[in-house]
User: Fold this.
Amino acid sequence: MKALIHENKEGMDGLSYRDVEPATQKSGEVRIRIKAAGLNHRDLSVLKRHQPTDPPFIVGSDGAGVVEAIGADVNTVSVGDEVIVNPGLGWQKNSDAPPKGFEILGFPDDGTFAENIVIAAKNVEPKPAHLTWEESGVLALPALTAYRVLFTRARIEPNMKILIPGIGGGVATFLLQFAKAIGATVYVTSRSEEKRNKALELGANAAIDSHENWAEALHGEKMDVAIESIGATTFNESLDQLRRGGTMVTFGSSTDDQVQLNIRKFFYGQFNLLGSTMGSREELQAMLDFIKKHNIKPIMDQTFPLKDYEKGFKRMAEAAQLGKIGFTL
Ligand SMILES: NC(=O)c1ccc[n+]([C@@H]2O[C@H](COP(=O)([O-])OP(=O)(O)OC[C@H]3O[C@@H](n4cnc5c(N)ncnc54)[C@H](OP(=O)(O)O)[C@@H]3O)[C@@H](O)[C@H]2O)c1
Assistant:
């Protein structure tokens, strides 16, 4: 089968689209013919963690396709079922944090950027009927992350004001759609005027230029919740926009991980700082019900055939996208 492999070199130079031996399913596993897959920021960052001396691996966390074969003992899924892959390995039930051993598909385990994937039957869910293959392929990781951040961690309510910096991000567009679906007021930032205009079309109440003074642009409006994934570059600017007693959730650091924090300002402000990562299978199922109920579809940036993977990776490395970059197979 064809797959996108990473080997021998660090970063994007180590990627190649080539033939590999397909895996066969064992007891409790299913084999899926992948029809569409989704690119996440993680797919770029793992290329730095995977060392040239390590064995090759198949990239990709998100994908959707048709079940082609099932192992013994599988009775929740049948051959021919249309499914999405849950990339959260080893997190079934809701809990404060992922259980020990939790991993995300697509490093170190082989991922979804391949014609076939073999995965545990408990890691597939029915494809949402209102979504296309491309929309289903990009959904699970970013939408699950956004769902847990908003509803489990920040516990947002319709009357709240939410700040989402960096609206171009794949998770950020789901954050905007989900928060608007429950009636919250949403402020976004972006470095791109085009993305700010698009965010306003998608329902953002205001869109701020990331380069300007955010407090001035917000005219003194304070936020109940700020959701940070850009990291060091914007962390303190986001924190400064919170009302006293407000909550910041952080789930990413596209720029630097190291942040300087004025703890006196922090404790006087009585702020809450929460971390979040992905979510459980139960949260994924709740997210799927939520998008069905509100008829939410992923905001697609561009879709490329997987053989043209370089175009998608380059677009994400340059942060040129708004929403999700997809691959078809
Ligand atoms: N913990 C988890 O479970 C989890 C899950 C998913 C993602 N993540 C992390 O969350 C982050 C976002 O992921 P994603 O896939 O949504 O990323 P993405 O699509 O690559 O988006 C990142 C966005 O951040 C903004 N940004 C990047 N560099 C910036 C800078 N120097 N200054 C200001 N803004 C900047 C850009 O927004 P504009 O172009 O609009 O300015 C960009 O579109 C990544 O760090 C990712 O690793 C974590």
Q: What stands out?
A: The domain at 144-275 is CATH 3.90.180.10 (Quinone Oxidoreductase; Chain A, domain 1). The first helix runs from residue 41 to 49. The chain has two domains: 2-139+298-328, 144-275.
